């Protein structure tokens, strides 16, 4: 298995699980690639397609097989891969290692018929030391989120989690879930963890479902995906956190001495400076209500995502908004000296975002990768499109408009659990909110 993150040790969850459970050796030197009969890759981010392109000349006669989060839409890497596993392969990996290539979700790019995303049951054993899967998918329907639309929601048997929490010698246990507070038995687990003097180390929660009890019992950071900067924006994207609730939960967590991390997105459709000003008002309100604490606020540039209702949206990136975020980031330097310390990491700039979008839509060949990597770090999207055109790549169709319902996307041969008609049903919310013409 090739360690794309440049370390000989497994880094991603898939690398850790498959390397330890199946004894798969890790390689991390490009020069080892030609001598390796079958190379396994774990594609974690759409930008990994550029790393693969940089090594594609070393493939020779080897077989390359990939899987991973970003390989669920394999457009960027399909040109160089022999097989791509679409979905998790907890159970199937052994068969793949043994040479079986017959699984229906093991996509062969030279035979691109309809391919189903794999939906296997959640493993009932730890997937890494101290790591157990508590749920997959998500019962909510935030319009931008792959977790809501690519596979049905499923919870681990409660007894499996209880037995693990009670039986493990570890103090910190990672119960993996896209939204822990939505797991039907999470309050029971919270109590069991507390009784055993243990903690859940890695949780992301839905703010509307996070009870006082869960906040009070939490020993680590509170992580909430807020996403939209304003109540209007969150409603449009079907993540309806009311402003009053947002403020109240943040204040409660900080006053209870919890570190807080709230993830926001920018570049949502119809977003304006008024949405931003609402966000600023919320920060000011919370800081006035709390004397101290730590609050991290990362911003992610929204990217319309394949197989979700946002796939029909025109990808947009606002330079004005990223400048506002950067100015706010600067204004918060030293904020812990006079109250809640607010930390805002620098968001992804247009070039990195643009490269991600390209790899959802186009094969990332070495020539295309070179053109995309030569783009300026920060420029308006029309300029990036024009520079790609100068380099011989017409990418204007991706960025020029919203798409009609029957648009032929490059990922249409992948069949997620939710079909196009139902995705479109959700996408119509965006039309009602004025995000999409028609
Ligand atoms: S609550 Fe989180 S994981 Fe669930 S659909 Fe919304 S953003 Fe996705």
Compact summary:
The protein is an alpha/beta fold and 438 residues long.
Keywords for this structure?
34% helix, Rossmann fold, four-stranded mixed beta sheet, 438 residues, binds iron/sulfur cluster, 16 helices, alpha/beta
How would you characterize this protein structure?
There is one protein chain. The longest helix is centred in the middle third of the chain and has 17 residues, at about 275-290. The chain is about 35% helix and about 15% strand. It folds into 3 domains: about 15-110, Rossmann fold; about 130-350, Alpha-Beta Barrel (TIM Barrel); about 355-430, no CATH class. The protein is built from 16 helices and 16 strands. The protein is of the alpha/beta class and about 450 residues long. The chain is globular and about 65 Å long. The strands form 5 sheets. Strands 11, 12, 13, 14 and 15 form a 5-stranded parallel sheet that branches. It has a 4-stranded mixed sheet with strand order 1-2-3-4, with no helix packed on it. The protein binds iron/sulfur cluster.
């Amino acid at each position: 298995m090739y360690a794309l993150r440049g370390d000989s040790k497994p880094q991603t969850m898939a690398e850790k699980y498959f390397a330890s459970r199946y004894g798969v050796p890790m390689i991390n030197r490009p020069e080892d690639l030609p001598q390796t009969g079958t190379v396994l890759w774990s594609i974690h981010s759409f930008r990994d397609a550029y790393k693969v392109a940089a090594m594609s000349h070393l493939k020779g006669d080897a077989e390359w097989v990939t899987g991973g989060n970003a390989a669920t839409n394999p457009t960027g890497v399909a040109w160089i891969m022999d097989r791509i596993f679409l979905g998790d392969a907890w159970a199937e990996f052994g068969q793949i290692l043994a040479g079986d290539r017959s699984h229906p979700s093991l996509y062969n790019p030279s035979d691109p018929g309809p391919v189903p995303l794999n939906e296997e049951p959640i493993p009932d054993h730890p997937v890494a030391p101290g790591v157990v899967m508590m749920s997959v998918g998500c019962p909510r329907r935030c319009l931008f989120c792959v977790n809501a639309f690519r596979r049905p929601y499923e919870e681990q048997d409660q007894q499996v989690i209880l037995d693990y929490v009670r039986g493990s010698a570890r103090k910190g246990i990672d119960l993996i879930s896209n939204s822990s507070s939505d797991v039907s038995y999470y309050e029971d687990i919270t109590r069991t963890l507390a009784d055993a003097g243990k903690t859940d180390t890695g949780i992301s929660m839905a703010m509307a479902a996070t009870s006082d009890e869960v906040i009070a019992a939490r020993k680590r950071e509170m992580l909430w995906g807020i996403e939209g900067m304003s109540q209007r924006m969150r409603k449009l994207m079907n993540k309806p956190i009311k402003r009053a609730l947002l403020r109240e939960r943040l204040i409660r967590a900080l006053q209870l001495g919890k570190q807080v991390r709230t993830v926001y997105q920018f570049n949502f459709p119809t977003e304006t400076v008024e949405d931003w000003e609402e966000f600023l008002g919320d920060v000011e309100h919370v800081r006035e209500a709390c004397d101290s604490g730590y609050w991290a606020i990362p911003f992610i540039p929204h990217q319309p995502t394949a197989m979700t209702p946002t796939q029909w949206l025109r990808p947009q990136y606002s330079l004005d908004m990223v400048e506002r975020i950067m100015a706010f980031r600067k204004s918060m330097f030293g904020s812990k000296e006079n109250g809640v310390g607010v930390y805002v990491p620098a968001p992804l700039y247009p070039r990195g975002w643009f490269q991600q979008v390209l790899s959802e839509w186009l094969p990332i060949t070495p020539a295309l990768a070179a053109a995309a990597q030569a783009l300026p770090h920060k420029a308006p999207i029309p300029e990036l499109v024009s520079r790609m055109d100068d380099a011989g790549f017409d990418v204007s169709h991706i960025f020029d408009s919203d798409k009609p319902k029957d648009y032929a996307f490059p990922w249409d041969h992948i069949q997620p659990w939710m079909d196009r008609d139902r995705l479109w049903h959700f996408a119509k919310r965006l039309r009602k909110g004025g995000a999409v013409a028609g």
